[in-house]
Specification:
Layout (H helix, E strand, L loop, with lengths): L3 E3 L3 H12 L4 H15 L9 E7 L5 E6 L23 H4 L9 H12 L4 H14 L1 E2 L2 H8 L2 H5 L2 H7 L11 E2 L2 H13 L1 H5 L2 H12 L6 H6 L3 E3 L2 E5 L2 E5 L6 H11 L4 H4 L4 H21 L10 H4 L2 H10 L23 E7 L5 E7 L57 E5 L2 E6 L6 H14 L5 H6 L3 E2 L8 E2 L6 H9 L6
Antiparallel strand pairs: 1-9, 2-3, 2-10, 3-6, 4-5, 7-8, 8-11, 9-10, 11-12, 13-14
Helix pairs in contact: 1-2, 2-4, 2-5, 5-9, 13-15, 13-18
Pathway: Sulfur metabolism; glutathione metabolism
Keywords: Acyltransferase, Glutathione biosynthesis, Hydrolase, Transferase, Zymogen
Pfam family, one: G_glu_transpept
């Protein structure tokens, strides 16, 4: 079996490949890539956010690790509302109240301790070198930095790193991050304790207190990762291994189970019928997701019932062969909108161990702020909670209580790092960046390979569609629809965005 590393940033991918060449396994490489992305892809790669890891071990075992951010212990359901109960724009995204307790450092550390073969110092050395010595910015890096250069200018400790003497960085220039190098060295020496019960936590809590936030040292000391059993479902001769709540693997499996009753391979990629049943399956599964799913420590997730043969048959019976179902006819309650800016990476080693990781700080560069001279951005993941349950939102729909803010709770997430097995061996390692489109992107990468015979690169490059129940429209990437297909679908009652 060939080893493989796929990430959004070539420096990070090279770090992973180097670790594999040194004899490390897929977990060693995944941890090294996670830290490298925190340096070379600071919009999204992080040590100030959280995420999920799905693992398939060469011995056949499948495991899920949840290291998503949690609500601070002082958080309340009305945190983002004013005295009149109205949601205050920007409070959950641009202030320290939006910062959840980060999980990335403990997640990477926990994975390495349990399933890695190398030391934390060994796997972190490449990231520390990239931070200290710097890396040459490519046009793509500069484009991402430019999206928030005005915000960087408002914070001297951010501007000192992410602006070049007050000016935006240019392609070809070398970005050095000595403060981040120092923070990473503390973690390499002291493990996650340095982060959660040491100088890094103290710096974050002090900055939070200074700027009206509610993070406490107890939040950091109490933070725990969760090991769980992934959800597994069969699709066209493969087994899809995908995350349980608070992630959305159930939604991926629900859509696949609905689609399993249709001859997609015969209908073909992006055909009228394929697009129709895919849109309907996504519509129903998203309605269920937003109604029922949440942090399992707080909410009962009826996964067996949602994925049961009876429920899938009921949904299929509601899909008309020739017309779109208006979303108003599909019961559900609307969840919160999610940030679009995660990053995903996949690792496979020669022994057959596979690791699929999606992690995030929510928005590009998260809340856009750093604590003192720690050198890394913090998340604004608290925005992924429902800000005001029980009240109709702009679609006239009541947002559910399953995803309301509670102390220590994890917000529902669309991140679905997944692994597809065939005859018990790794067939695909997949996942996607994005917000709620992560679910459809990941799902369609599977359909493109399994049903439509594409190779992995074609499957990822192929234009995609997305339907999330509300708004009642199909979102399509350029090149997905032909004019004839679009006209046929519009006649069935679909609108496009």
């Amino acid at each position: 079996m060939h080893a493989m590393v796929g990430s959004t940033q070539h420096y990070a991918t090279e770090v992973g490949l180097d670790i594999l060449k040194q004899g490390g396994n897929a977990v060693d490489a995944a941890v090294a890539v996670g830290y490298a992305l925190a340096v070379v892809h600071p919009c999204c790669g992080n040590i100030g956010g959280g995420g999920f890891m799905t693992l398939h071990l060469a011995n056949g075992k499948n495991i899920f690790l949840d290291f998503r951010e949690r609500a601070p212990l002082a958080a309340t359901p009305t945190l983002f509302q004013d005295a009149q109960g109205n949601v205050v724009p920007g409070r959950s995204t641009k202030t320290w109240l939006g910062v959840g307790v980060p999980g990335s450092v403990m997640g990477l550390d926990a994975a390495l301790k349990k399933y890695g073969t190398m030391s934390l110092k060994q796997v972190m050395a490449p990231a520390i070198k990239l931070a200290r010595d710097g890396f040459v910015l490519q046009p793509g890096d500069v484009k991402i930095l430019d999206t928030r250069s005005k915000d960087f200018a408002a914070h001297p400790n951010v501007a000192a790193i992410f602006l070049n003497h007050g000016q935006p960085w240019k392609a070809g220039e070398r970005l050095k991050q000595p403060e981040l190098a120092h923070t990473l060295e503390l973690i390499a020496q002291g493990g996650s304790k340095a982060y959660y019960d040491g100088p890094i936590a103290r710096a974050i809590v002090a900055a939070s207190a200074q700027h009206g936030g509610i993070l406490s040292l107890k939040d950091f000391r109490d933070y725990k990762v969760v090991w769980a059993k992934p959800i597994e479902c069969r699709y066209q001769g493969t087994t899809v291994v995908t995350p349980p709540p608070p992630s959305s693997g159930e939604t991926v499996c629900e859509i696949l189970r609905i689609l399993d009753g249709y001859p997609l391979a015969q209908w073909g990629y992006a055909s009228v019928l394929t697009t129709h049943v895919l849109a309907e399956a996504e519509r129903h599964a998203f309605a269920d997701r937003n109604t029922y799913l949440g942090d399992p420590a707080f909410v009962h997730n009826p996964i067996k019932r949602l994925l049961s043969t009876a429920n899938i048959a009921r949904i299929r019976s509601q899909i008309q062969p020739d017309r779109a179902t208006p979303s108003s006819e599909v019961k559900g309650s609307l969840g919160a909108a999610e940030g679009m800016h995660t990053t995903h990476y996949s690792v496979l080693d020669a022994k057959g161990n596979a690791v699929s990781v999606t992690y995030s700080i929510n928005y590009l560069f998260g809340v856009g702020m750093m604590a003192g001279n720690t050198g890394f951005f913090l998340n604004n993941t608290m925005d992924d909670f429902t800000s005001k349950p029980g009240v109709p939102n702009s679609f006239g729909l009541v947002q559910g209580h399953v995803n309301e803010i509670q102390p220590g709770k994890i917000p529902l997430s669309s991140m679905v790092p997944s692994i597809v097995l065939k005859h018990g061996k790794v067939f695909m390692v997949t996942g996607s960046p994005g917000g709620s489109t992560i679910i459809s992107s990941t799902l369609e990468s599977i359909l493109n390979v399994v049903d439509f015979g594409m190779n992995m690169q074609q499957a990822v490059d192929a234009p995609r569609m997305h339907m999330q129940w509300y708004p009642d429209a199909i979102f399509v990437e350029p090149g997905y629809l032909t004019p004839t297909t679009q006209a046929a679908l519009q006649n069935m009652g679909y609108t496009f965005k």
